[in-house]
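Quick question, first post here. What does this chain look like in 3D?
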Amino acid sequence: MAPTSKFMNKTVDAYLSSHTSQPTAIEQRLISQTQELSAGIMQIGHPQAQFMAMLTTLLQPKLVIEIGTFTGYSTLVLAKALAGGAKLIACDVSAEWTAIGRPYWEEAGVADKIDLRIGPASVTLAAFSPDTVVDLAFVDADKTGYVDYFEQLVPMLSPRGVILVDNVLWSGRVASEEDQDKDTVALRDFNDHVMADRRVQVAMLPIGDGLSMISLTNE
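> Answer (accepted):
Ran it through. Tokens below.
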């Protein structure tokens, strides 16, 4: 199993992982296949996946939007937590990577809940009907696009909806102004952008590589 946290030492990380509900056999096979890829580091850890699954069960969303599907592990976990009639629209630019996940979605019996759309997520979101209501969104894609995705999602968010945004701590690099890498700067700008937006409230969680949980304010 790959490390699940970028911030804990290996002993604590292993303890956390062993005291979180474990992936199913189907999920573990997808995790293992993904870890064999050179880009396998992009996969979320199972404690984060478990948190997202439990949140999905609690929220009971009717429409979930995922921006950044990769090999489909997060997609699988979210789809399994959906109630009957709910739908997950998964957005990604790679037909090759998402094809890895499709057989696992089928095997788990959730493929009919997943609407995979290949192409730029900003274009996919822009094509939604004006009355679209999003109950849960997960953003884990190109970091320079985070602000645009956020701005597209917020007007569609239901009153009790939640946007989850991955990699917001970026191995801690966002906290160092000396780090001017393009993605680091984009994530730092995104975090500041959300904090300055009075439409929303945010809780930044030190899970995985940092996960922001965003909802509309009650004002």
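The helical segments are 10-18, 25-35, 46-59, 73-80, 95-108, 121-126, 146-153, 182-196.
The chain is about 40% helix and 20% strand.
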